[in-house]
């Protein structure tokens, strides 16, 4: 038989219930909290007093113009905690800090010069210290740090793998070294998963319960949100569509083994390699290939058309398995002019069901913004349980 909950546990449950409602409402009165939770007004008043003493909520103005006395409104106290989000890439490191109410306080982007694991960790640490200094807090004041990174984080093994886009980033000592800088609150979030969370919070994903975010750039990945939840898989590898075996025979097989068939063929490097095979020897980037196609170069147009077919086949595989409401294309190539129309035409031909396809309107900060959203949820859980 389960023992009945004691008074202390009941008080804690009431306080957490109120916190959840205050957070979702942003500003709310005692009477509204009582109506929404079913708790008595004296119970709500006691819980609010305890939450104010804990520094988690505060009174924030009054509501006027309604029958009866003016109602005091309560909101989450922004300074109750901070979330630090970092994005590590091959060209840039980006970061931001938001408060417990979700407002972004500071943000910065820096070119990376590091070529080694320790160099990148050093750059991330300096960026974090600069952001904290700009906000006027210490790194030790951060409630939760979230690092958006290439690769697969397996929580069961506490290990990062398949991070070949960054040299040395799958070293067995990486997480220990990162925690030495950022502490035990550090979380690792796959960068494409983080971008999908940003799409869910700020982009097209707000409109639907299930969507697939497909990122095509220097790497290729999938963030899958089903029934409102990001799906990571047992080993954290859900969405590693780079390994779909969709490459052609002309692709370097060593590259296929290193980074996966789809990524070897359809990433930025794959597009450049394909352009050079058809005689576009001066093409130094995928952007130049797309620009040449837009200016009428038939060889470049053929490369872009082949890229669209590869991406459409990958999306068809996703649709056939998950049947999402929407597919969103992101990344430097996924957002390139003209690609979505070519992908849509091929997808209409091969997909088992009609599929809505959109280009993400979010920019280069999407990984950071997704890390903030993920970290804020974790920080909320940590602070409410502590309260």
Summary, kept brief:
This protein is α/β, with parallel strands linked by helices. It has helices at residues 7-25, 30-37, 41-53, 117-135, 174-182, 191-202, 253-259, 261-266, 268-277, 286-294, 298-322, 331-334, 339-350, 366-386, and strands at residues 28-29, 57-63, 71-76, 82-88, 92-99, 104-111, 144-149, 152-154, 159-161, 186-190, 211-216, 220-226, 229-230, 326-330, 357-359.
Walkthrough of the structure:
This protein is α/β, with parallel strands linked by helices and 387 residues long. It contains 14 helices and 15 strands. It has helices at residues 7-25, 30-37, 41-53, 117-135, 174-182, 191-202, 253-259, 261-266, 268-277, 286-294, 298-322, 331-334, 339-350, 366-386, and strands at 28-29, 57-63, 71-76, 82-88, 92-99, 104-111, 144-149, 152-154, 159-161, 186-190, 211-216, 220-226, 229-230, 326-330, 357-359. Strand 11 and strand 12 (220-226) form a beta hairpin. Helix 6 (191-202) packs across helix 14 (366-386).
Q: How confident overall, as mean pLDDT?
A: 91
Calculate Rg over CA atoms: 24 Å
Terminal-residue CA separation:
28 Å
Query: Biggest β-sheet, characterized?
Result: 5 strands, mixed
Output the keywords.
14 helices, 20% strand, 387 residues, five-stranded mixed beta sheet, 15 strands, alpha/beta
Write the layout of secondary structure elements.
Elements: H1 7-25, E1 28-29, H2 30-37, H3 41-53, E2 57-63, E3 71-76, E4 82-88, E5 92-99, E6 104-111, H4 117-135, E7 144-149, E8 152-154, E9 159-161, H5 174-182, E10 186-190, H6 191-202, E11 211-216, E12 220-226, E13 229-230, H7 253-259, H8 261-266, H9 268-277, H10 286-294, H11 298-322, E14 326-330, H12 331-334, H13 339-350, E15 357-359, H14 366-386
Helix pairs in contact: 1-3, 2-3, 4-5, 6-14, 10-11, 11-13
